[in-house]
Amino acid sequence: MSEVEPEAPEADSSLNQDLYKFAIPMLYDGWFSQSGELAKQMQESAVAAVNGGSRTLEISFPPVPNVDEVKFGTKLNSMFGEDIARYFAIKDEKKVKRYMIEFANFYWASRLAEAFPDRKVWILCCNSVKKSDARVPQNVEVACALDRVQRGKVPDDDALVIVNDPGATENWRRGAKYGGKDRIVVMLNSAFVETYDLCGPLKEYEQSYFLKRISKGWVFKAEGQPWLAYLERPDGSVEILDVSEQRPRLGAVSKTLRDESFRRYSIYNDRWSPGFGARL
């Protein structure tokens, strides 16, 4: 009798990107206004969260295509700086490129404000870079977060308050003081968090839209979708490697991606080193 070959294990259907409304935005065309993919995903996720009753949101993603090289002025970042300058009608493009992260976060806050045209929007910037020459949507006010809190000034009862790059936990707490009534408070693109994990320090804040580069890939979350861990291949393409309804721990998901990357590609899946998969 001939031996019967064992059946191949069924593929995990949850890893099929077609199941989900939003995929990780295209790297890196999705950042630019011509595509608008990242802006659309962020806006729709925030609106869905608010319509579902959420009033405290955390939104986080790389504000520029190449954060690690922002000080050295890569071509992609330079082109994105020009995109930002056009959006704000700022003639001095060099100023935007000089303060790329600050203006990029200001840009994303303004794009988020577009999704809430019927609300007054306060963009509270946790930096001292002047943006008075930027043309912002009509429903937007711009201020310094810490000054406003210290002076006790309170936005409208139904305002959208966007705290730009809160950083230190104390800034998160100060920004959170604007909550209450029917106000929406969004913590946007914190450059770092003191939790040593994926997300910020305030447990009541829902991650409505989240995209973070980690070792050998990305973690992605859009409103109404589970957490998706993407493996980045040597050619720059990505695939879903793991799906979780609960927010994964940074260490655990990083190990999952590192182990699979090494199993498939050994040392030849590096974003930086020439000859070892470099693509940035």
Task: Please explain how this structure is put together.
β8 (227-232) and β9 form a beta hairpin. This protein has helices at residues 37-51, 75-88, 93-98, 100-114, 145-151, 169-176, 250-265; strands at residues 56-60, 121-125, 140-144, 160-164, 184-188, 206-214, 217-222, 227-232, 238-244. It has 280 residues and is of the alpha/beta class. It is globular, with a radius of gyration of 20 Å. Strands 3-2-4-5-1-6-7-8-9 form a 9-stranded mixed beta sheet, with helices on both faces. Helices cover 29% and strands 19% of the residues.
Biggest pleated sheet? 9 strands, mixed
Cα Rg = 20 Å
Q: Pairing-aware structural class of the strands and helices? A: alpha/beta
Percent range for helical residues? 25-40%
Strand order of the largest sheet: 3-2-4-5-1-6-7-8-9
Number of helices: 7
**Strand count:** 9
Overall pLDDT confidence? 90
Percent range for β-strand residues = 15-25%
Q: pLDDT below 50 for ≥5 consecutive residues: which ranges? A: none
N-to-C order of helices and strands: HEHHHEEHEHEEEEEH
Shape: globular
First and last CA, distance: 56 Å
